[in-house]
Design brief:
The chain is an alpha+beta fold. Helices cover 30% and strands 36% of the residues. The protein folds into two domains: 1-41; 46-147, Immunoglobulin-like. 12% of the residues are buried.
Amino acid sequence: MQSIKRKGMSSIVVIVFLILISMAIVSMLYVSINKLGAQLSPQISCTERQINPHIEIAGVCYNPQNKNVELTLRRDISRESIDVLNFFISNDLDSSSWICSNSCGNCVILGSGEIKKYYFDFENFRENSRIGFAILDCLIESREILLC
């Protein structure tokens, strides 16, 4: 009688184990197919980025006490992968540029739905100074920098 119970119990364990393995395989396939689909999807053109920007300037000002330009960016809830942001500040005397990517140690690109403040050391502030940012060499937005 006991051998019959053990045989019945072992078949249940095998079935549960097979279900768990199947679920793991299906989830791995789902992740792989989603990554492949993202890689094969067409790149967004510069015009499309400018018409429907997923990141915008929420505020910008120059702090004369620490000689920093403070830039606040807001990102909408989108699935677009943004790996690099290019920033530039210019006026009649000077221009500077910075690159931000997640591979840098001190600069992190804001995530989907986030608001993030970036600080730029810029001592040559003048009236009519402008700051802007670009994604993949496509200018998204620029604004005049005002005093904080």
